[in-house]
Amino acid sequence: MKIMLDAGHGYNTPGKRSPDGMREYEFNRAVANYAKQLLADYKNVTVYFSHSDQRDVSLKARTDKANSLNVDIFVSIHANAFGGGGWSNVGGIETFVYPTRPPVAYQLAQKIQRTLVISTGLDNRGVKTADFHVLRETKMDAVLVECGFMTNRNEIKLLRSETYRRTIAEGIVKALAEQFKLQRKANAAPAPTLPPAKSPAPAKKDGLYKVQAGAFDNEQNAKELAERLRKAGFDVYIDKE
Questions:
Q1: What's the whole-number average pLDDT of the chain?
Q2: Is residue 188 part of a domain?
Q3: Residue 231 pLDDT exceeds 80
Q4: pLDDT tier for residue 191 given thresholds of 50, 70 and 90
Q5: What residues are paired with 93 via a beta bridge?
Q6: Could you report the per-residue pLDDT of 67-93, keeping only the tens digit for each?
Q7: Same structural domain for residues 67 and 174?
Q8: Total structural domains in the chain?
Q9: Is the pLDDT of residue 44 over 70?
Q10: At 10, which CATH number?
Q11: What are the helix (H) ranges across the chain?
């Protein structure tokens, strides 16, 4: 299977940066690099990049490359923004497909959206349609994912974090593996999992320690994470404040 990862924009793209100066491409390329590393653990998968660290690549050049290579799926990675360049409270994850809602692209977008919302705890802005060039001019199925808002003071901290960037990459790869039934190589490192339910270290007797796995303003997101934790062997409860 041939997969093209598209880190949106470039280092020199005007305006694509946070109010405090982080370029969107810095985030996009990091996620693409992590995703490529993770996809190397799957059988019969070839990963291509549409972007370049040396120059800004036009949208047409990106889709032309994907079409000439006849890739099977095109995944465009972005960070979002709201308003005229200042800070805003708008935030969350959203994933786009072309307005005709091609079935495979739409199914993949749903899987990416669900996985990223659960793994990040950010607001679910849903799967949407848009007439973006990379969705319209690609001959294969294509999705575009917006992984958080550069104009949100809380989310820009996440977008700068290598842990968050890898979390996004893991979510995208997990969705790709599920959608296309990718098989892991025999010598591949185990897929990321939750830590074991019980620590082998003896518990201290001088107090009670609690670990919170997530905080959500959407009840369904909380329930979905709780169900994942239960399946992993954890005792879980949801506490509403």
A1: 89
A2: no
A3: no
A4: low
A5: 124
A6: 999 999 999 999 999 988 799 999 999
A7: yes
A8: 2
A9: yes
A10: 3.40.630.40
A11: 24-39, 59-69, 103-120, 133-136, 153-160, 162-180, 219-231
pLDDT confidence tier of residue 226, bands split at 50, 70 and 90: confident
Residue ranges making up the domain that contains 8: 2-180
Domain assignment of residue 89, yes or no: yes
Cα–chain center distance at 154: 17
Residue 188, token pair as written in the block: 């591949």
Same domain, 221 and 160: no
Q: Residue 126: phi, psi to the nearest 5?
A: 90, 170
pLDDT, position 222: 79
Alpha-carbon distance values, 155 to 2, 82, 161, 172 (Å):
32, 12, 10, 18
> How many residues belong to the chain?
241
Residues 176 and 200 in one domain: no
Closest by CA position to 146, among listed 185, 184, 188, 109 = 109
Q: Is residue 191 part of a domain?
A: no
- Its pTM stands at 0.80
In a domain, 214, yes or no: yes
What average pLDDT does the segment 187-207 reach? 48
Same domain, 158 and 233: no
The residues pairing with 97 across neighbouring beta strands, listed in sequence order, are 129
Co-location of 171 and 217 in the same domain: no
